[in-house]
Amino acid sequence: MRSADSRGADADAEKSWVAGSSVAAALVLTATKITVGLATGSIGILSEAAHSGLDLVAAAVTFWAVRASARPADRNHPYGHGKIENFSALFETGLLLGTCVWIAYEATKRLAFGQGPVKVTAWSFGVMVLSIVVDVSRSRALLRAARKHRSQALEADGLHFSTDVWSSSVVIVGLAGVWLAERLSLPWLIRADAVAALGVAAITVLVSLRLGRKAVDDLLDAAPDGLLERVTHAAAVRNVVKVSQVRVRRSGPATFADVVLEVERGLTIDRAHEIAHTAEDAVRLAIARIDVVVHAEPASADVEAAPPTRRWPSPGP
Predict the structure, then answer these.
(1) Using CA atoms in the order 4, 7, 9, 11, what is the torsion angle rounded to 10 degrees?
(2) Does the predicted model carry a pTM greater than 0.70?
(3) What is d(CA 317, CA 314) in angstroms, rounded to the nearest whole number?
């Protein structure tokens, strides 16, 4: 069986590779969209170019974050460097919101005061279709790695790319409106390109707020839904009268838990330590990548006198 250190090194290498490939993808998409957007005058494509440009910055930050967060704990950071990933996700949220402000401003200006001519060509549609194909591929790879390694930085980057799928689709609709306006003599459809840009901004705001809330929760050590219950359930092994306290926190992909157990009175210190170690093993078995510390103390007389509502058997023989 491979050691935990070896598995951790493989996980860090995979996260770095996925993040690095996203940097390359964002670079190609940004350059292509800027070229086509300037050539056609489409605010929708240019807004997508700005979006992809910030995605490039976000992908670069993610690449740095997953590498920096993999550094082991040290004297000044006893819980490790995992929260760098949470800061990375919060930074990406700020970038997305900044993009939204610029896109909304430009689109509103064009709707209110008119816009220059938009030249719709095969390249206009081609670059957006290419963007969707690349974004779908990268978002799937990033979100798959994020779930596998519980990486908030990769999750944030994956959501960036998945958002681009929807925003690129909105831009295609806008370009189609401009194309139809020229052929059907319907001038009001010309505004579809600017409306599409507003759609990009609206989608991005929603995803940004979701990302930001999750990042802030982790930075403030908010307990993820259901985690307290899972730790409590796993720690209630044989001879435990009560799981009296559970505290959990997340730092990047790692989880830390402090548990206080009340055990039957009259047990020897050695036996109480055995129960604590059994509870630690049970929690590690139930929850991946968790650093758990269990303290056992004798149950108070009134707690021991009351029949436990439920006892959980020790895992294994």
Answers:
(1) -130
(2) no
(3) 8
